[in-house]
Design brief:
InterPro entries: TPR-like_helical_dom_sf (IPR011990), TPR_rpt (IPR019734). With 381 residues, this protein is mainly α. The chain has helices spanning 2-12, 15-32, 35-52, 55-71, 75-91, 95-111, 115-131, 136-151, 155-172, 175-191, 195-212, 215-231, 235-251, 255-271, 275-292, 295-311, 315-332, 335-351, 355-372. Among the domains are: 1-111, Serine Threonine Protein Phosphatase 5, Tetratricopeptide repeat (Alpha Horseshoe), CATH 1.25.40; 264-381, Tetratricopeptide repeat domain (Serine Threonine Protein Phosphatase 5, Tetratricopeptide repeat). Helix 2 packs antiparallel against helix 3 (35-52) and helix 10 (175-191) runs parallel beside helix 12 (215-231). Mean pLDDT is 90; it is low at 374-381.
Length: 381
């Protein structure tokens, strides 16, 4: 439909309609994981709108370019486009467009683990969208606040915001958005140890995403379900989900998702005693996360590598990797991740026979998790 509209606009020489169709095509390509095509169409739309002097629409095209850049893990580019869009749309007094720009900026900061900065932009986005009487933008902001709070270890508050986001999505009939929120709720529930609820939410999210053909979303929900199944002891089913997710991410060249799938698979190789295979996959995931600037993911991958190194008796190597993870998490103020890493360090020291150090790290980890309301459903990964 969009391609027919684009062809008709070009045939009629209607440049403005052509640019509108290009921008809409870019959004569709984003939703389907076709990032190269999305980048090309968004760039073309921006150039036409700029040539026509339509600065407001050019700002919306910049929002699309920011989204494409983020999905391709080009974070500085995504941030530049988002900030430029915010500047243009604020000047044009387009509050809705400015709210969208705030969302793009917060998403980049989320990926870069700048959690406090992301939270500030998300709250401002929520304020703007509420002034505009809510809608999808309000749900997006609520969902992002929920994600950030979960990452900061405030699981109960994260679930509170997620439920509010889900209410908005359901009221709007937004099935794609419902899938995203349900997946986020599954991850939060898993963090709090409520595994049966987490599994139900992951399966609901997966069903919606399969129904609407959202393959990149399917991969995300497969990883979520795999992690819950692994916690519940159903390793064969979990491994099948993670392997399917890895294939989807590789097909779509989704490096962020590929690293997530690899880290999930590492757990299964570790649990089955295939330590060399596990550490090879973990190092591959670490290399991807280093390359795309995913510092939260780097810390998680380092923890996985340390977990395997401990099993192999390489305690000094394990301590080195955990120390690097701790440094990243302290700088990011990632309380929840810090608790997991301290737990990992306690296991390393116990394995090495350094019981006093192990007890001190375990007590520190317990204190962090107790403050955050975290349950027992979470593994190191």
């Amino acid at each position: 439909m969009h391609r027919l509209g684009l062809a008709a606009a070009r045939a009629a020489g209607d440049r403005r309609s052509e640019a509108l169709m290009l921008d809409q095509l870019a959004v569709v390509h984003c939703d389907r994981g076709n990032h190269a095509e999305a980048a090309e169409d968004a760039k073309a739309a921006y150039e036409v709108f700029t040539e026509l002097g339509d600065h407001r629409r050019a700002g919306w095209a910049l929002n699309t370019r920011s989204r494409v850049g983020r999905l391709c893990c080009r974070y500085q580019e995504a941030l530049d486009y988002g900030e430029h869009a915010l500047e243009v749309l604020t000047e044009e007094r387009d509050r809705q467009g400015a709210g969208q720009a705030l969302e793009q900026i917060e998403q980049v900061h989320w990926r870069l683990a700048h959690h406090r900065t992301a939270l500030r932009y998300a709250r401002e986005s929520l304020r703007v969208h509420r002034e505009l009487r809510g809608g999808a933008g309000e749900a997006d902001a609520l969902e992002m606040i929920s994600r950030i709070l979960r990452r900061l270890g405030r699981v109960d508050r994260a679930l509170h915001y997620a439920r509010r986001a889900l209410d908005v999505r359901e009221r709007l009939g937004d099935r794609r958005g419902q899938g995203e929120v349900l997946d986020g709720m599954s991850r939060a529930l898993r963090c709090s140890g409520r595994l049966d609820e987490a599994l139900r939410h992951a399966e609901d999210a997966l069903r919606i995403r399969e129904d609407i053909g959202d393959l990149t979303g399917v991969a995300v929900s497969l990883i979520s379900r795999a992690r819950v199944l692994e916690n519940l002891g159903d390793c064969p089913a979990a491994f099948a989900d993670a392997t399917r997710a890895l294939r989807i991410c590789q097909d779509f060249r989704d490096q962020y998702g590929e690293a997530e799938a690899l880290c999930t698979i590492v757990q299964f190789h570790h649990d089955s005693g295939q330590y060399e295979t596990a550490i090879r996959h973990a190092r591959h995931a670490l290399a991807i996360r280093d390359r795309i600037g995913d510092e939260h993911g780097v810390a998680s991958a380092l923890n996985l590598i340390a977990l395997v190194e401990r099993r192999l008796g390489r305690h000094a190597d394990a301590r080195r990797d955990v120390d690097r993870a701790l440094a990243l998490q302290r700088r990011m103020k990632d309380g929840y991740g810090l608790g997991k890493t301290l737990n990992n360090l306690a296991e390393i020291e116990r394995s090495a026979g350094r019981y006093g150090e192990a007890l001190a790290h375990a007590v520190a980890a317990f204190a962090i998790h107790a403050r955050a309301g975290v349950g027992r459903g979470e593994r190191i990964a």
